[in-house]
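Progress note, sequence design subtask.
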């Protein structure tokens, strides 16, 4: 059965390593017959959450920017894939800001049930994405019936394109094929 897959690349770097892996994941998901939409935050305007909680009443954020359209796409996706570089052992600020702005989805009729995480870092240690996994897990815990299905990490990525030289591109493609 075909699923609606939303891949969100949160890196602002051109030809970023996390985006390379996100694109490979998207290609795998498409090859397996899914409907895939790819969003890059590079040119998006996403303001910080103001904590007003108006979205809890209206199911829509009061801040008029690109986060409104993105969270609507998140709401209607069956699967959401986040791709982020690891900065200071955490997710990118853009990803965290988007997750905060997705507060309008809480207690709404969201469709997503599966979350995937793609991470890259200069650090090669397999523990590098642990804090990002914990932080994303906190967001996921706010949504009933939603789970982190899988994650992939590619370390040793210092320069744009370094991920191409790793086996992680194939791993990301294969992970996409599992959907």
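Output:
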């Amino acid at each position: 059965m075909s699923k609606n897959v939303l891949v969100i690349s949160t890196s602002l770097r051109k030809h970023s390593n996390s985006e390379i892996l996100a694109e490979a994941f998207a290609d795998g998901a498409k090859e397996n017959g899914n409907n895939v939409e790819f969003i890059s935050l590079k040119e998006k305007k996403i303001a910080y959450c103001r904590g007003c909680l108006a979205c809890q009443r209206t199911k829509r954020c009061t801040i008029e920017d690109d986060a409104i359209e993105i969270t609507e796409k998140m709401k209607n996706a069956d699967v959401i894939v986040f791709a982020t570089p690891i900065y200071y052992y955490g997710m990118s600020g853009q990803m965290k800001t988007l997750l905060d702005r997705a507060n309008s989805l809480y207690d709404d009729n969201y469709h997503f049930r599966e979350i995937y995480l793609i991470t890259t870092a200069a650090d090669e240690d397999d523990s590098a994405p642990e804090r990002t996994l914990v932080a994303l897990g906190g967001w996921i815990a706010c949504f009933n019936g939603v789970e982190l299905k899988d994650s992939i990490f590619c370390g040793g990525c210092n320069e744009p394109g370094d991920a191409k030289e790793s086996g992680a591109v194939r791993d990301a493609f294969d992970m996409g094929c599992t959907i």
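The domain at 4-177 is CATH 3.40.50.360 (Rossmann fold). Work on this subtask will continue into the next period as scheduled.
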